[in-house]
Please model this.
Amino acid sequence: MEPEVKRSTQEHGRDAYQRYGRALVRKAERILRSREDAQDMVQGLFVDMLENPSPTLDLPYLYRATTHRCLSYVRDEKNRARLLERESVTLTGAPRTRCDDRALDMDLLVKLTKVLDDQTLEILFYRYFDDMTQEEIATQLSLSRKTIGKKLDDITEAVRTLTKEGEPS
Model:
């Protein structure tokens, strides 16, 4: 990359980081429940973007990229044990996020990453962590509201199934 183009890309990335960085860290922190991990996710995103420039650095793109990075992080086998070990209701309080009258704690979230596809997981985060409406999610993902409704039903069913499996007989 030529020096002038590289400098322009870096300036564009720096501007996007200053403009959207705090919001992206808050989003990642809601998912990961750790400020340090959230900061690492967002910084890693911007480092990757500087190395492989993206044509758009608008908030919807960055929002989805952050969600995907956090999902990948939660799915990673090496991180699961650490995330579950760190998660303690007595220390962090009850999660504010609920689905089918069941709190979406880190244990359930890890289990859901094993049974739901990427798009359904993304919808789960938008609906239950970001409090987006079905219409907002449909617009964000370029899907119909009916499709979003069906995916939310799939999420509810998965939560019911997973919570029934965990109950003592």
Q: What stands out?
A: The beta strands are 98-99, 102-103. Residues 74 and 80 are 6 Å apart (CA to CA). Residues 89-169 form a domain with the Arc Repressor Mutant, subunit A fold (CATH 1.10.10.10). The first strand starts at residue 98 and ends at 99.
